[in-house]
Amino acid sequence: MSSRDFNPDDLDGLLRDSERSLRELTSMIGELQSISGAGESRSGAVSATVDANGRLDRLKLAPRASRMELDELTEEIVQAVRAAQDDQARRTMALIPVSPQLGSVSLEEIQRQFDEIQDSFTRDMHERMADLEAIRRRSLEDD
Question: In whole angstroms, how large is the CA radius of gyration of the chain?
Answer without folding.
Answer: 24
